[in-house]
Amino acid sequence: MAAPLLFTPLTIRSVTLKNRLVVSPMCQYSGTDGFANDWHMVHLGSRAVGGAGLVFTEAVAVNPLGRISPADLGIWNDQHVIQLRKITDFITAQGSVPGIQLAHAGRKASVTPPWKGDHYIPAQEGGWQTVAPSPIPFTDTGNTPLELSTEEIAAIVADFKAAAKRSLDAGFKIIEIHAAHGYLINQFTSPLSNRRTDEYGGSFENRIRFLLKIINGIRSVWPEELPLFLRISATDWTEGGWTTEDSVRLAGIVKGLGVDLMDCSSGGVAANVKIPAKPDYQVPFAAAVRGAGILTGAVGIIVTAEQAEAILTKGQADLVFMARELLRDPNFPLRAARELGFTEMGWPVQYERAKRNK
């Protein structure tokens, strides 16, 4: 009997994922000065032990101003590599592939963790001045970001490039560029947050210029044999914003620059937008972008093995990214294999006795 698609390996460039289940990037807000610690080792390592084919870090800031909160991970310092290398070595030893998501929060930076209210932290309280393509606050009560100069934009592109080099040193095999959820790259691509009149604003071609420079910068140092992913918000969910058609158009462009897969999420640029969240609500975006001839990942309220398998069998996506369900159950891949009747799923030898019902 053929294996379920969910447990069929997928090779992208030189990297083979043992299955199609991906630990989606999930911020932990638990670092210090950008450094990972035992929490991140256990959080990421336990998902590798649980059988996920690909384990992504949270959004890792390419410079200090790019952190969402003061407790975010970073990779702007060579010393950050040391602890990250311990984590990637452990993930690899479990047969999973370690991935890193590189990010800059832009105007959504300098806030407290969610459990402390997501409040803006002013400089006098340990926060920092935020930056963006245009000086437009995210919310009426939020801070007003400074508009980036072209020189500052070039410096951030260089930060992404340097972060990619450190990611290689840290043992990561896949990079994902975070261009979604209203963070800096998404702020450039969306007309709702980008009101520039120079080469980085106005037309579609100008608004994606920052992203394309980042892709080219990363690809210039990231080995050709290693995959590059791109997370996008496939729609802003509001009139006048980025659309699914824009996402499909972008897919054809970035594929030619060396992006292998587009991870299709949505929203985040506009505050107080009503998003019709329900199981599979973002899957149509992955399906539409996949039609442009690029691999895609589906994400968003995917909580059962049958649901994940159906997405793949219908040809809507190539990978299934899971977040909250993997917080609830780090061993979801092991459970999903059993539920789908896949008996060849490898278990850690230390856990083998639990594989048997008796």
Round the mean pLDDT to the nearest integer and report it.
Answer: 97
- Helical residue percent band: 25-40%
Low-confidence stretches: none
Distance between the termini: 24 Å
N to C succession of SSEs: EEEHEHEEEHEHHHEHEHEHEHHH
What is the SS-derived class? alpha/beta
**Rough shape?**
globular
Q: From the alpha-carbon coordinates, what is the Rg to the nearest angstrom?
A: 20 Å
In DSSP terms (H or I, runs of 4 or more residues), the helix count works out at 12
Count of strand segments:
12
Main sheet makeup: 8 strands, parallel, barrel
Q: What strand line-up does the widest sheet have?
A: 3-4-5-8-9-10-11-12
| Portion in strands | 15-25%
Annotate the secondary structure layout.
Blueprint: E1 10-12, E2 15-17, E3 21-23, H1 38-49, E4 54-61, H2 80-93, E5 97-103, E6 131-132, E7 146-147, H3 150-169, E8 174-179, H4 184-189, H5 204-207, H6 209-219, E9 228-233, H7 244-255, E10 261-265, H8 283-290, E11 295-299, H9 305-313, E12 319-322, H10 324-328, H11 332-339, H12 352-355
Parallel strand pairs: 3-4, 3-12, 4-5, 5-8, 6-7, 8-9, 9-10, 10-11, 11-12
Antiparallel strand pairs: 1-2
Helix pairs in contact: 1-2, 3-6, 7-8
Structural account:
There is one protein chain. The chain is of the alpha/beta class. Helix content is 32%, strand content 15%. It has twelve helices and twelve strands. It has helices spanning 38-49, 80-93, 150-169, 184-189, 204-207, 209-219, 244-255, 283-290, 305-313, 324-328, 332-339, 352-355; strands at 10-12, 15-17, 21-23, 54-61, 97-103, 131-132, 146-147, 174-179, 228-233, 261-265, 295-299, 319-322. It has an eight-stranded parallel beta barrel, surrounded by seven helices. The longest helix is centred in the middle third of the chain and has 20 residues, at 150-169. The radius of gyration is 20 Å and the shape is globular. The two termini are 24 Å apart. The mean pLDDT is 97.
